[in-house]
Specification:
The complex is a heterodimer. Chain A is an alpha+beta fold. Chain A is about 35% helix and about 20% strand. Chain A has 14 helices and 18 strands. The relative contact order of chain A is 0.11. Chain B has 26 helices and nine strands. Classes of the chains: A alpha+beta, B alpha/beta. Chains A and B meet through helix 2 and helix 11 of A and helix 4 of B. The structure holds flavin-adenine dinucleotide (FAD) and iron/sulfur cluster (2 copies). The site of one iron/sulfur cluster has 15 residues of chain B, from helix 4 and helix 6. One iron/sulfur cluster (SF4) binds next to helix 4 and helix 6 of chain B.
């Protein structure tokens, strides 16, 4: 066993010849053993390939010796995706940054997986285009990670999520073959749609080594509207009201009263602490159209019981309206040090009901539970604030999180709108997908990765893994 | 580890602070060492996690040494952090624990010898320090420098800085300085100048220019004689005890005159001065005095701005860029004033460089201890500086100034670009009368 270990480790050195890019020290290994969620592991090696050939060679070697390989971008994952739960090799893609080119004629971008998402956005904007997917971690996370998680953001409502912009991929399979899926064209029906199978596959089907993205023209203008509601159900009706009036905002966010209070405690700016919710709406498009729509939105909100409605056209003024939303994360982190950020998603019409269920969970377990999120698409972010060191409370939190998942599924929603399954949500997969559904997914995985070396321990529940565990 | 020992370690290393970090990674793009060294181990998130690993006995303390020593202490990560994680405290704790463990392992005598043989073999540095009134020995600066790791290096790296270090002021010149300089015209404020030990030896003329500018801006300036070293180096090298003593001496020295501001002109020293309340938070009789000292301590740029700006300066054409001091930006949180002063000058074209808020690699004595790493960081900085087409790089801290000079030299730009302290830059525009 040990001899075998030495052997693959020696061979690895032949693949990645620059010894600076093979990490072996304790400090290095531990540094690649966590992400933005829970758990600390220690891989046996970390490699930092710079091109597809190195990745392919690493995969071939790992496949031969059955060594688990864990792709990792910037480890901002909130569900445990890059965690090396079974040791092996962490494959850091951050050094694969060679390619970032914009094709103005075809409105596409070709990028390496280690490029930060915000850089793509900037490069597109320089040429007058727009790359809409906007996870709030865009300035830190890699596009490879975004594709693997199918990340989304507030603009998902109108523009969709990362996957809606992926036209083609270059992928190294678990067996070390380099394959190309999709292409450069918007229309493409040649064979199975492997591109979209790989999107959101959380690094369990292969390593993405290049991505072709679709861009769109930059919207000419934006307007933002902030409305305050005294009643949660009213705010829910306003959301539906706007959408059924035929208006498609580019973003529609909701902040609950606990968040408002947290923000007001953190950086007082006069937010109404007695309100039930704040709804933030952004409209984008042709200036004339927006002008009309913003009047309409204001009227609808008022009609449906908004206490106040405020709109902003100036970029600076818009920024200050969105400030409240931006402050939510840091503000709630002040409540208690450990933040468990969920992204259970329900059909839009069920938002008020989901809020009610969340309120009950909050009371039942007596925990700090706050909710904000992308109201327009039903992607809520219930956040629990707790303290890892308090094991008793953590046990309650585990139960509460499980109930949140169950509530979402009961209401016809899903476990995860954008953060992925990773290690955290595996126990609930069967409940959502049914056993046959889960089994089909498993078969896909097995045929792609016969030796189960590609990010093992993720998405599929391990034997006996039936509930969420957040404590050690 | 025994329970009590573990508890002590956790307390000292700042284990509790590590829980504020949610590992979101928002600090990664801000960190210069993550950029140049290319691994999580040398990122803020990575370092915080490793401190946690040590405190949880999942990693040996010694494995923490390199990641911590290679941190610039620039605190850009603190500014970037959405949860306000106090990385500065964690770093300080880790440094203290690492230094304590080293103390036991190395024979004291041997260290002492290395200090005297290799420490500052530069004649210019020695001359500079020799003339400082309190002497570097007396303040314990010597011990701090030794602990900081400087002693381990070959004199080689220091030699590289020899050429760019200005000559210290002659003792005569220094002795001629008065202790009070009245405002020109009607006084708007009364201030005291914190001279700083390196500033006052190697950059004596910058201190004199500071006084002149303040006088022009309408401030009476006192220079309390009893003041001493700020203690930054002591703190950063883990000698908290001595840092506290120095803090007390300074608080006392500046309490003797009733002033509106205590003005400093070195970002690094200034940052240390604003830490005095934290440093003395456990000493009841000092707490309030420290707080009032901290409240009065201000960077020269802030004070000039508050006194109404620099409209008394004359026009002179120049294309400039600005390299902010990290401690001014990320600890003192002074970002607007220096730029506002520069931009208010007529004839000056200000071109901001990309990532200006990233450390230049000077970081106290980092560029001497970790010469190669610092030069890599500097090269990135210079690659952002060059497109600005500036002829002058303005800085707000002596360390940054020297590093910028080094960068200019490395790029072979000595004939077309210069580096200058903000105060000296402004002084060049003083009316002749
Ligand atoms: C503060 C904060 C805010 C966030 N906001 C959002 C948000 O608004 N919307 C959202 O959707 N998410 C959000 N996230 C989650 C996270 O940022 C995204 O999931 C992001 O896409 C992860 O990118 P990464 O580079 O950090 O990848 P990692 O976390 O390193 O990896 C994520 C997954 O992708 C796999 N992977 C990475 N690179 C590759 C590759 N090249 N090939 C194959 N597999 C790969 C990994 O194995 C892992 O399973 C947020 C996270 C944080 C901490
Ligand atoms: S202090 Fe500077 S170098 Fe150190 S971790 Fe923070 S950003 Fe990086
Ligand atoms: S930004 Fe703050 S919370 Fe996020 S990883 Fe860095 S130190 Fe931790």
């Amino acid at each position: 066993m040990n001899r075998l270990k030495k052997k693959w480790q020696k061979k690895l050195e032949k693949i990645i010849k620059d010894d600076k890019r093979i990490l072996t020290d304790s400090a290095d290994l531990l540094s690649y053993g966590f992400d933005g969620s829970f758990g600390q592991y220690k891989p046996e090696r970390v490699v930092q390939p710079v091109n597809r050939e190195e990745v392919a060679a690493v995969m071939k070697l790992a496949n031969k010796y059955s060594i688990p390989v864990y792709p990792r971008g910037q480890a901002t994952c909130l569900s445990g995706g890059p965690l090396p739960v079974k040791g092996g090799i962490v494959l850091d893609t951050c050094h694969m940054t060679g390619q970032l080119s914009i094709d103005s004629e075809n409105l596409t971008a070709v990028v390496s997986p280690g490029i930060l998402t915000s850089k793509i956005k900037e490069a597109a904007e320089e040429k007058g285009f727009f790359y809409p997917p906007d996870p709030s971690s865009a300035h830190v996370s890699t596009i490879g990670g975004n594709v693997a998680e199918n990340s989304g953001g507030p603009r998902g409502l109108k523009y969709g999520v990362t996957g809606n912009y992926v036209l083609g991929l270059e992928v190294v399979t678990p067996e070390g073959e380099i394959i190309y899926t999709g292409g450069q064209t918007i229309k493409n029906v040649t064979g199975y749609n492997l591109t979209q199978l790989l999107v959101g596959s959380e690094g369990t089907l292969g390593v993405i080594t290049e991505i072709t993205l679709r861009l769109v023209p930059k919207p000419k203008k934006r307007v933002s509207i902030l409305s305050v509601f005294d009643d949660l159900v009213d705010s829910g009706r306003a959301i539906s009201g706007v959408l059924s009036a035929g208006i498609m905002p580019s973003a529609m966010e909701i902040i609950d009263k606990h968040c408002i209070n947290a923000v007001e405690n953190y950086k007082p700016a006069g937010y109404p602490t007695d309100a039930a919710a704040i709804i933030l709406i952004e409209l984008d498009g042709h200036p004339k159209a927006i002008e009309e729509e913003s009047v309409q939105v204001t009227d609808i909100c008022k009609e449906l019981g908004a206490r106040t409605v405020q709109s902003a056209v100036d970029e600076e003024d818009q920024k200050s309206l969105w400030e409240a939303r931006k402050l939510v994360s840091p503000a709630i982190a002040k409540i208690k040090p450990t933040k468990i950020s969920e992204d259970a998603t329900v059909p839009r019409s069920k938002i008020p009901e989901m809020f009610e269920r969340l309120n009950k969970i909050r009371e039942k377990y007596n925990i700090e539970l706050v909710v904000f999120g992308h109201a327009g698409d039903g992607n809520l972010h219930p956040n629990i604030l707790t303290d890892k060191r308090d094991t008793e409370e953590m046990k309650c939190v585990e139960l509460a999180v499980s109930e949140i998942f169950e509530a979402a599924i009961d209401l016809g929603g899903t476990l995860s709108g954008e953060h992925g399954i990773g290690t955290m949500k595996t126990p609930f997969m069967e409940k959502e997908l049914g056993s046959a559904g889960l089994e089909m997914m498993k078969r896909v995985k097995e045929s792609w990765d016969p030796n189960n070396i590609m990010n093992p321990g993720k998405i599929f529940p391990e034997k006996g893994q039936t509930k969420l565990v957040l404590t050690e | 580890m025994k329970e009590q020992a573990l508890k002590d370690l956790r307390e000292k290393i700042g284990y509790d602070y590590t829980f504020d970090c949610v590992q979101c990674g928002y600090c990664l793009p801000a960190c210069p060492t993550y950029e140049t060294m290319g691994k999580e181990t040398h990122s803020p998130r990575g370092r915080i996690n490793l401190v946690k690993m040590v405190a949880e006995e999942k990693m040996a303390l010694e494995d923490l040494r390199e990641p911590i020593e290679k941190c610039l202490g620039c605190q850009a990560c603190v500014t970037a952090c959405p949860t306000n994680t106090q990385y500065g405290r964690i770093l300080e704790g880790a440094q203290e624990v690492l230094n304590d463990s080293e103390k036991k392992s190395v024979s004291k005598k041997l260290t002492e010898k290395i200090v005297f043989d290799t420490f500052f073999p530069s004649s210019k540095w020695m001359a500079g320090f020799g003339h400082v009134m309190w002497g570097y020995e007396k303040t314990g600066l010597q011990k701090a420098v030794r602990k900081s790791g400087l002693t381990k290096l070959a004199p080689l790296n220091l030699g590289k800085f020899e050429e760019i270090i200005p000559s210290p002021a002659a003792p005569k010149e220094r002795k001629a300085r008065k202790t009070y300089y009245p405002a020109k015209g009607k006084a708007k404020a009364t201030v005291a100048l914190f001279t700083g030990c390196i500033m006052d030896s190697t950059f004596f003329s910058t201190n004199q220019n500071t006084i002149t500018l303040l006088n022009h801006a309408g401030a009476n300036v006192y220079i309390p004689e009893a003041q001493t070293c700020c203690g930054a180096l002591h703190s950063h090298s883990g000698d908290v005890k001595q840092a506290r003593e120095l803090a007390k001496s300074n608080i006392k020295a500046f309490e003797e005159i009733n002033v509106d501001f205590v003005v400093n002109n070195a970002g690094g020293c200034g940052a240390q001065l604003t830490e005095y309340d934290h440093l003395l938070s456990n000493e009841a009789e000092w707490r309030d005095r420290a707080r009032s000292f901290v409240e009065k301590s201000k960077d020269i740029s802030t004070v000039l701005w508050e006194l109404g700006g620099v409209s008394f300066l004359e026009e002179k054409e120049e294309v400039v860029t600005y390299q902010p001091s990290c401690h001014l930006t990320h600890v003192q949180k002074v970002t607007k004033e220096p730029k506002a002063l520069i931009q208010a000058l007529s004839g000056v074209v200000f071109n901001e460089m990309k990532d200006e808020q990233k450390c230049c690699g000077s970081a106290g004595i980092y560029n001497i201890v970790h010469y190669d790493d610092a030069m890599e960081i500097l090269d990135v900085k210079m690659s952002h500086m060059k497109p600005t087409k500036a002829h002058t790089i303005i800085t707000t801290n002596p360390g940054c100034l020297l590093q910028m000079k080094m960068g200019i030299k490395r790029e072979g730009l000595e004939d077309s670009v210069r580096a200058v302290h903000l105060v000296d830059f402004l002084s060049e525009r003083l009316p002749l009368t």
